[in-house]
Write a structure and sequence with these properties.
heterodimer; A: alpha+beta; 10 helices; globular; B: 545 residues; alpha/beta; three-stranded mixed beta sheet; 21 strands
């Protein structure tokens, strides 16, 4: 089982504090790896433009790094800042890590007149091209994300040790959101792309559980002809892609996510004020119904965070905090470690019908029940 | 050696040892009650007075050397038309277990079953006994430590499926917000009682099935639907609230559709769906074949024909000339008849051309599903060669079609239903769930329901299989009141309920260890394995050993 920790705060904080929370939850997990997503970045050495795309990944060889530079140049990206990790190589289990990439680029001048949607599409295609290039060269180049305000790290090993090895305790990089997950996909052969969190066009999720409906969901998403719906080295990657599909392709509000992955039963829909719409939505998105025990934690580009449970509430997750600072963790002790000075009586463990949403202003927690009205005026 | 002409020997002369079923009669136990002979549906048994010589060595010349004993025994008729069909009705009625048929694998009857130039015709399924391919597929992706297993007895499971055209999500949201037409979709139990016509089945059987289906829906909460075959539906059913559990079939003879169309204004509810039969797995290339024996007064009235005439439907819909036209005309016409509120889908026989049909349906916004009936499908009447050697096995046919839809991203839009051999050896849930995980949205079963709910005696060793003659010893496929009164509709209804309750529990027993409970695992091929490398490769599932 994965251990998950996510913290969101109005003031940037060090990702190392979240790794310490992972340490608090160490009992019962194999500590086989770390997946980290930082959002709302601030660098000690550089004041970046919030709109500039940031590339995260790993160049496993010098040659791969050379190809990366060539490709980004050819696309018109201009390197503005290269965050140099102070790597303690001896502490890293894998020996083929030539360079951890965290670079701020200026987007190509040719994109100046592109719509926001087109820019977001181009960013996706650039990341996919880098990934494809790495795969074509024996996986010597790994590209996790290319998006404004987002940094990602995935590595094999004990999470806290990876944090120290990469110098994340130095305070040189901070963020307003940090998602951390402490396991590689040890059920299968380790592949860095299979490590949570998963990222697509600003949307990220990580999951504690197993999605037993993975194959039919993957088959359906793969048939969408959307270039980003690839990968699927992990059964949990589809959670990120479904969230992307619901919010960006169907343009439905965040609350619809819950209705798609764990729709209500007939008798519940019969009583729901928008049961007719939701029943049709359930039918149309039937192949996206998840199964098995899952707690899904997600974040969006606007720094909204969310937590949803599977339809039987078979996995634990707790959210707690105070205005300006909230934490979600798979274990309660993880929340304690991230925000010790909160009112614990207000901690919340969502049940099967809940979606917990922490809006970008982080002033209060929204607990939305699936039985409540669906916030689309036209659908009423 | 005696001359040839002194013994009776023609090319078609058979002894009882040449027949596919041989009567074993124990004279010691026989009470001569005569029930076996009176119940035998084909008249193969006859009680006969027989005489045997009792030789005795006598020295005195005044006495006769031998005496004769007369006894009453059973004779098995060896005429081709009256051979024993192995139904076992004699054994069923015998008070002393003195008689039963025994299968004879070395029969010579098969070479003679062409009398008067008529090839063998029968009811039943393809006569290939033994484990079917579907019986060999197992569910091997067991959720254990990676995932807490579900409890089939206590957790809630969603086992239903959808019948109807499902819009792509983008289009659904657009149309819903714009207030446009949304195609009708029915949520039904994935095991469907396949199309068996009101002429093929006896009135008692039909009534029992309908009662059972209504009970499943209204009391047990299992939304079972049943399909009529060609030949319409009794008017009282058309005007009843039970019509919503019925899929009305229209086939190439259009029998019964006068009644149906006339009843539309008086219908209390819409039918579950309309099935347009283009083909049938048991006899591809043939239409329905209701033989004159079964065209009773009631059937004649329903079908709008004279009594006692053969009713062979044409092989194709005569008004149509191409698939495009067919899809366009028939599906839209039938949809329009119910104002686009009822799903309309075609049924075809399993074929290498099934994908072409499917791809035509994908392009028609009114096509609601595709039902493919494989070679192991049953029928009430067909030529033996059609049943045994013509058609396509269902598993690879469905799989190919499903993967084709996946490649187009349309697997949720047109549900594929599978039929043909589901439950052939009794493993109905295993067979059905295997097909569902290969990509079917549900399965139709006809023969299995006759066997499970009404005790049909037919088997793939060519036992009984005289549905075509209207001689059904159980009264399931006969229009003769003497025979069909043997069947109590209430008991059939009870067995229908038993059967579907058992299937529902078994579905959960399959889904729970796979970690599935939220939706029917359609296309969950990662859970399937078979110990045959070639089949695994063909079906794109895991080879296990």
């Amino acid at each position: 089982m994965c251990r998950l920790a996510m913290k969101t705060a109005s003031e940037p904080f060090s990702p190392f504090s979240v790794l310490q929370a992972m340490e608090a939850m160490q009992e019962g997990y194999d500590g086989s790896g770390l997946g980290l997503l930082l959002r709302g970045l601030s660098f000690a050495d550089y004041n970046h433009n919030p709109g500039d795309p940031i590339l995260s990944g790993i160049a496993h060889t010098e040659e791969a790094l050379g190809r990366l530079d060539l490709f980004m140049n050819s696309q018109g990206f201009e390197l503005k800042f290269d965050f140099e990790f102070k790597v303690k190589k001896a502490m890293i289990e894998a020996k083929d890590r030539h360079k951890y990439i965290l670079r701020v680029y200026r987007q190509p001048a040719a994109w100046k007149d592109f719509s926001q949607e087109r820019i977001e599409h181009e960013l996706l295609m650039t990341r996919l091209a880098l990934r494809k290039d790495g795969e074509a060269h024996g996986n010597d180049l790994t590209a996790f994300s290319l998006w404004p305000e987002v940094a990602m790290i995935k590595e094999v090993g004990w999470p806290l040790e990876i944090g120290i090895a990469l110098g994340l305790d130095s305070g040189r990089i901070e963020s307003r959101i940090c998602m951390a997950q402490g396991r590689q996909n040890t059920n299968y052969g380790i592949n860095l792309y299979a490590c949570h969190p998963f990222f697509i066009q600003g949307i990220a999720t990580m999951t504690n559980g197993e999605n037993t409906a993975f194959t039919p969901i993957r088959d359906w998403l793969s048939g969408r002809a959307f270039p980003g719906y690839i990968g699927y080295q992990s059964d949990s990657e589809v959670f990120a892609h479904i969230l992307h599909y619901v919010t960006r392709q169907l343009r439905l509000p965040l609350e619809a996510y819950k209705h798609v992955i764990t729709p209500l039963k007939n008798e519940e829909l019969a009583r729901h004020p928008q049961g007719d719409f939701l029943r049709g939505l359930r039918d149309a998105c039937r192949r996206l119904i998840i199964d098995g025990p899952n707690a899904v934690i997600g974040t969006l580009s606007d720094e909204t965070s969310l937590l949803v449970m599977d339809a039987k509430k078979l996995r634990p997750a707790t959210v707690g905090g105070k205005p300006g600072e909230w934490a979600i963790a798979s274990e309660m002790c993880g929340v304690d470690a991230m925000i010790p000075d909160r009112d614990r009586a207000k901690d919340f463990q969502p049940m099967r019908e809940h979606t917990v949403i922490i809006p970008p202003d982080r002033q209060e927690l929204q607990i939305w029940s699936q039985f409540d009205r669906f916030p689309v005026p036209q659908a009423a | 050696m005696v001359s040839v002409r002194s013994i009776s020997s023609t090319p078609s002369s058979l002894t009882h040892n040449d027949l596919p079923w041989v009567i074993e009669h124990n004279e010691e136990r026989c009470t001569l009650c005569g029930r076996c002979a009176s119940v035998c549906p084909v008249g193969t048994l006859k009680l006969a007075y027989m005489r045997k010589r009792m030789p005795r060595l006598v020295l005195a010349s005044s006495e006769r050397g031998s005496s004769y004993k007369t006894f009453v025994g059973i004779r098995q008729n060896t005429e081709v038309g009256k051979r024993c069909i192995g139904c076992g009705s004699c054994a069923m009625v015998c008070p002393n277990e003195a008689i039963h048929p025994v299968h004879n694998a070395n029969d010579r009857f098969r070479f003679q079953n062409t009398q008067h130039g008529e090839p063998a015709k029968r009811g039943g399924r393809r006569n290939v006994p033994g484990a079917s391919l579907l019986d060999r597929i197992i569910f091997d992706r067991i959720s254990m430590l990676t995932d807490p297993a579900l409890d089939a007895g206590r957790h809630e499971f969603s086992c239903n499926t959808l019948l109807g055209r499902v819009l792509p999500p983008e289009e659904y949201v657009r149309r819903k917000l714009a207030g446009e037409w949304i195609p009708p979709v029915r949520e039904i139990f994935p095991f469907i009682i396949g199309s068996m016509s009101f002429g093929a089945l006896s009135p008692n059987m039909w009534l029992g099935l309908l009662q059972g289906v209504a009970y499943c829906n209204e009391v047990l909460g299992i939304p079972v639907v049943m399909a009529t075959g060609e030949g319409g539906c009794p008017p009282w059913v058309l005007k009843s609230p039970f019509l919503k559990y019925i899929i009305l079939q229209i086939a190439s003879g259009y029998f019964g559709w006068d009644e149906i169309i006339r009843a539309i204004p008086e219908m209390q509810c819409d039918p579950a769906a309309i099935e347009i039969k283009y083909g049938q797995g048991a006899k591809p290339g043939d239409g329905g074949l209701l033989m004159w024996y079964k065209v009773s007064k009631l059937i004649a009235r329903l079908r709008g024909v004279p009594e006692g005439v053969d009713l062979p439907s044409p092989p194709v819909h005569q008004t149509l000339y191409s698939i495009e036209e067919s899809v366009m005309k028939m599906i839209q016409t039938m949809s329009m008849a119910w104002n686009f509120r009822v799903p309309v889908y075609p049924k075809i026989s399993g074929s290498t051309s099934a994908k072409s049909v499917l791809n035509n349906l994908v392009r028609n916004p009114y096509a609601s599903a595709l039902l493919i009936d494989g070679i192991d499908g049953g029928t009430g009447a067909a030529y033996n060669i059609s049943m045994d050697a013509t058609g396509h096995p269902i598993a690879s046919n469905v799989r190919e079609c499903y993967l084709d839809l996946c490649a187009q991203g349309k697997q949720n839009e047109i549900p594929i239903f599978a039929a043909g051999g589901i439950g052939k050896n009794g493993n109905v849930t295993q067979n059905g769930m295997a097909l569902i995980m290969l990509g079917a949205s549900g399965v139709h079963m006809g023969k299995y329901i006759m066997q499970a709910a009404a005790g049909c005696l037919g088997s793939e060793q060519n036992r009984c299989n005289v549905c075509n003659l209207g001689l059904c010893p159980k009264g399931i496929t006969s229009q003769n009141p003497k025979l069909y009164r043997r069947l109590d509709p209430d008991q059939v209804a009870q067995r229908v309920a038993d059967t579907f309750m058992a299937i529902r529990t078994e579905i959960k027993k399959v889904m729970a260890p796979l970690g599935r409970s939220q939706s029917l695992p359609i296309g969950m091929s990662d859970a399937l394995g078979i110990e045959d490398r070639d089949v695994a490769e063909r079906l794109n599932i895991r080879y296990i050993c």
